[in-house]
Amino acid sequence: MASDGSEEFRLVSPSIAKEGRMPRQYTDEGQGAKKNISPPLEWYNLPKGTKTLAIVVEDIDAPDPDGPIVPWTHWVVVNIPATVKGLPEGFSGKEEMGGEYAGIKEGNNDLKQPGWCCPKMPTHGHRLQFKLYALDDELHLGNKVTKEKTLDAIEGHVLGEATLMATF
């Protein structure tokens, strides 16, 4: 329960087990791996006043070859209408999705390409952080959406955050 007595704003994936293991089908490694398929996501109990949502997915344990740990961006999704209750498996890269998904925009991952960049790690034990932001407005980021532009634009507009962690 949240401090106001309401149910907590939550982000979940029906495919990520309670222990947080990222299934191989959403990675680029091992038997069962699919080709760059984004996992399904669901969210519950949006904060009052939410107009749109944004998602940023990062490997928060990614090492920089020259030194410290620098998060690696796997996926950025913006302008998800508050009426949408989740993203289906394989949502990423499907340009033809219309209806309630029509205004959603995928941003560039750290490969400088729009859409989901499935994990392929040099070592295991990395944590993938899925962060969902409930926003009081739509984002206007131009043609090239990035994590940095998204995080700058949402400043002062975040009504709530929900996080899902998965290990790989």
From TrEMBL:
Pfam families: PBP. CDD domains: PEBP_bact_arch. It comes from the Eukaryota. Transmembrane segments: none annotated. Residues 1-35 are annotated as: Disordered. PANTHER family: PEBP (PHOSPHATIDYLETHANOLAMINE-BINDING PROTEIN) FAMILY PROTEIN, UNCHARACTERIZED PROTEIN YBCL-RELATED. This is Phosphatidylethanolamine-binding protein.
